[in-house]
Give the backbone structure.
Amino acid sequence: MTRVPLRPLPRVLEAREKGENPDSIERENIRRRNEATRDRARARAESRLLVLAGLFVCAFAVIGGRMSVLASSEPAEPRASAAGAGILAQRADIVDRKGRILATNFETHSLYARPQDMIEPAHAAQELARIFPDLEAARLTEAFTGKRRFIWIKRKISPEQKQAVHDIGEPGLLFGPREMRLYPNGKLAAHVLGGASFGREGVHAAEVVGAAGVEKHFDARLRDPARGHEPLRLSLDLSVQAAVERVLQGGMGLMNAKGAASVLMDVHTGEIISIASLPDFDPNRPPPATSDAKPGDSPLFNRAVQGLYELGSTFKIFAAAQALELGVVEPGTMIDTSGRIRWGDFTISDMYDHGEALSVADVIVESSNVGTARIAKKIGADRQQDFMRALGLTEPTPFEIVEARGAKPLLPARWSELSAMTISFGHGISVSPLHLAAAYATIANGGRQITPTLLRRDTAQQGTRVLSPETARAARRMLRRVVADKAGTANMAEVAGYAVGGKTGTADKPKPTGGYYEDRVIATFASMFPAHDPRFVLVVMLDEPVETSGEEPRRTAGWTAVPVAAEIIRRVAPLLGLRPEIEPRAATDITLTSN
């Protein structure tokens, strides 16, 4: 910077010539120099202030942004999750075939605590223990006074509980919105629906995932945001399901059974109109799963789908139908039923003496083990195995609940001739009641294999043909006689106005350690109605029933499962749109006369 002299000589000389005071020149230069110095200092100060202001603005922006992030984040403990993956709480409704709600969503709240904001943690703990009896005040106090900054108290609470917690007045107790799964019909169709639980969850949302049944099988479909407005429509009929479960529950108690199951199926579409398993549970409050050695005793166990049982004489119609289809017998062919069949250490015998011989039809009507075994010998083990496979009795049923995947029938390690004889009357092979219903539907619909489904269908299935229509018709006539004839084992299944055909099965229950119980059975009745033109198949199974109205206890299916099935048909046939009618007579009973 060039400094200007305070007393420049030219100006001093010029001032003297004019008679002016040269000192004024110096004072003016000093003033100007001071003003320039002040201007430079002011400019420097303003620049510094601008820089400092900019720094403050940036600092406040960073702090404000961080505070916004913290304010909008969930005060939850750290957890591993996919980057950017939000919690989807939406879940579609489940409805029955008529659109009535089976499962829906319900808005509720969760309860959590932030101990650092609590004023009286001990008092809050005592009040919470009073509101929620399953909580312990001592443990809550310890948690509230510890080092944790976030504590889950309840994943879901009722509106009444929320109000009670709110009345405590503790600022450290906070609520988060929740959408939980609600089953408005309680226990009704519990094993079908299965239930749901929370998956990933935070304070502001929780992921509702299927835990069992159709909820788990269709989990991806129900959680799909693009289809959230579209309910999942099942084939179940809510009214029919309620009637079936009520009768089955009453029959189970009346017959002193430890468990029961039923399957009601449309023989043409394969739709399951009703499926029940007892004992059951409330999916709104499911019992905890146990690691018990006997899972079949748990109310969570689905006897209709998961349960694999020897279903006894209900299998006899399969032997008769296959023999008719192969042409090795006719309905009137006489079969030796005398004595017993001995095969090594194994003996096949009948409960009652059926005489020297019975026709094939009478073997079914009177349920002769010996006669059925002799029919099976005519068929052969290999052909029988192929037929059972065609009926779907050797593999898990492709049914739309997750429990069906593990229900693989128990088959003999070696399908020998002895196996063929015992399987013909339902021993040596274990299947579920659902398997049996699908196999009976094949006979009922004219011989086409049917796949049971829980989804609403409007068209008939066109499965593989297993039997000719003529064979299926002949088999249905035999099943009708089992109910209609006095000698039949299911004559108590007759329902006025609704012709019923079916077959009983009473199988000794196997022991876990091997062998069979002498006083425990699985009693089953597999039926179809109306028998002359079947539309529905009904299978009823009772676990360890015993009827005690007589002098001696009676355990056979004719005394236990049959009356229960008859009452179910009596209740649900009108609900299914079936009108009572007089059964048409067979053409052979009509005598033509001329005028």
In short: The radius of gyration is 41 Å. The CA atoms of residues 38 and 517 lie 114 Å apart.
